[in-house]
Amino acid sequence: MWSVDEHLADILATVRPLEPIELQLLDAQGCVLVEDVTVPAALPPFDNSSMDGYAVRVADVAGATEEFPAVLTVIGDVAAGAGGLPTVGPGEAARIMTGAPLPPGAEAVVPVEWTDGGTGGGAAAGMRSARTAPEGAGGTVRVHRSAEARAHVRAAGSDVKAGELALAAGTVLGPPQIGLLAAIGRGTVKVRPRPRVVVVSTGSELVQPGEELGPGQIHDSNSFALAAAARDAGALAYRVGAVTDDADALRDMIEDQLIRADLIVTTGGVSVGAYDVVKEALSADGQVDFRKLAMQPGKPQGFGAVGPEQVPLLALPGNPVSSYVSFELFVRPAIRALRGLEDLHRPRVRAELTADGPLTSPAGRRQFLRGTYDAQAGTVTPVGGAGSHLIAALARADALIVVPEESESVAPGQELDVVLLG
């Protein structure tokens, strides 16, 4: 039998990162950057206001109070995106909006709440729209507080300066990173694309969710779970409806799917039964090697490459827990390798086992039990039994408890490796 580590090493030695391509920003979400991106121009590109208020000279508002306000002449409006800025001279102010460039001569911005808003009354709560009250851009304004130089002014380059590194190669592009690229003027970016993963479940007994069950039939859950897991790992997942136990039909389906696949994942049909169609269909020409692994659940596994482009194919067992555990151990690292990531694995921690009694494990096999992890207490508790069909227990778990090959029994209080799934 192969060990878990040997099988994984064989997979990762074969899987190579996808070739980089240039993508539009939104298409690049979730992709891995392959080159450093530097800032072509400072961000923000000019001094601008961080408040709605008035652009003033510091000397003109020195010592201003509500009892003795500074009275300034309003010379116009400065809106975001404005050009042809007015120059603020002694005794003058310009009404300014958040994000608008600081006009020449102005040294600070006083928020509108520090003024009468040009109404001649008390403290203003805001400004009336320029469309409904154009007169607000003229007249006088009473300022009730003084302001230091550069108050409420965002300096040019205070976010990033021209020539600085914006994003380093290897960065996964999420919403904030996409926003930064747009802010510095990048419309496209060079990335490794998200892998296209085709998920296929096999078995004549499988019926799609929402359809009536006949005698001996069950709903297909594996393809949904694995397609969701592939998306969670950063792939574009394509779920194929269950294929019946017919080797020719399976071969034809896989051939049809090769055009859109960077990785194919099958579930079911890999053991030693008379109707194990995946093994029958894919082992004859030697493209896929079917193995027995020293693990529980998930002993039968298959791995190889199919089609002219030698697309990697991982064949997983059909029991729900076996297929999901196999995905986490083998498929997820393969997807992350295709993405070009360096960290391929789920986080692992050491945790103390809490259980009603000792847990048994088969000799010579690495066992993966479902569990719930308590980070604060540093403990992990088994959920459900060891059966590979117990999908309800899997749904309640957030961790896999790893019982090493040399252990046939583990006692409460013993420390074990725990794979965190959340």
Sum this structure up briefly.
The protein has eight helices and 28 strands. It has helices at residues 4-14, 58-61, 175-183, 222-232, 247-257, 277-283, 320-339, 391-396, and strands at 21-24, 32-33, 37-38, 48-49, 53-56, 70-78, 92-96, 108-111, 140-143, 153-154, 165-167, 188-192, 196-202, 206-207, 218-219, 236-243, 263-267, 288-292, 295-296, 300-306, 311-316, 348-353, 359-360, 366-374, 379-382, 399-403, 409-410, 415-420.
Features:
six-stranded mixed β-sheet, single chain, alpha/beta, 29% strand, five-stranded mixed β-sheet, 8 helices, 422 residues
Strand order of the largest sheet: 16-13-17-21-20-18
Number of strands: 28
Q: Based on helices, strands and strand pairing, what is the structural class? A: alpha/beta
Summed up, the helix count is: 8
- Overall form: elongated
**Helical residue percent band:** 10-25%
How far apart the termini lie comes to 30 Å
Low-confidence stretches: none
Detail the topology: elements first, then pairings.
Blueprint: H1 4-14, E1 21-24, E2 32-33, E3 37-38, E4 48-49, E5 53-56, H2 58-61, E6 70-78, E7 92-96, E8 108-111, E9 140-143, E10 153-154, E11 165-167, H3 175-183, E12 188-192, E13 196-202, E14 206-207, E15 218-219, H4 222-232, E16 236-243, H5 247-257, E17 263-267, H6 277-283, E18 288-292, E19 295-296, E20 300-306, E21 311-316, H7 320-339, E22 348-353, E23 359-360, E24 366-374, E25 379-382, H8 391-396, E26 399-403, E27 409-410, E28 415-420
